[in-house]
Design a protein that fits this description.
It is found in: Membrane. One of its GO terms (cellular component) is membrane. It is a multi-pass membrane protein. Keywords: Carotenoid biosynthesis, Isomerase, Membrane, Transmembrane, Transmembrane helix. Its main location: membrane. The chain is mostly helical. The chain has one domain. Helix 1 runs parallel beside helix 3. The chain is elongated, with a radius of gyration of 16 Å.
Amino acid sequence: MSGIGYTLPAVLSVFVVVAVELAWLRTGLFRRRSYWITVAIVLAFQVPVDGWLTKLDAPVVVYDPAHHLGLRFPLDIPVEDFLFGFSLITATLLAWTAHERKETRS
C-alpha cells in the first residue's frame, strides 16, 4: 500500500500529540500565541533546510516513493516531513510545559 511506510506514522503522530494535549495534559498550549510564533519560527528554518535536503534535482535525502504519498510542497519537501515536524516540536513543548506546571505545583 503506497504511503503507509512514512505517511501513516506521520499522520498518526499528529493525532496522538493533539489527543494527548486535549484529553490528558490540557496545558492550553494550542491557545498560546507564543506556541504559534514558535511553530512559525520552526517553519522558517525547516523550509529552506528541508527544501535543500530533499530537492528532486540533487537530493541529499532520498525517500522511497513506495513509502510516501508523493505530495511535495514547497521546494520538493514531502508533506510528511511537516507532519513529523509538528509532532516533534509540539510533543517537546507539551512535555516542557507539563513539567513546568508540575514543578510549580510542588
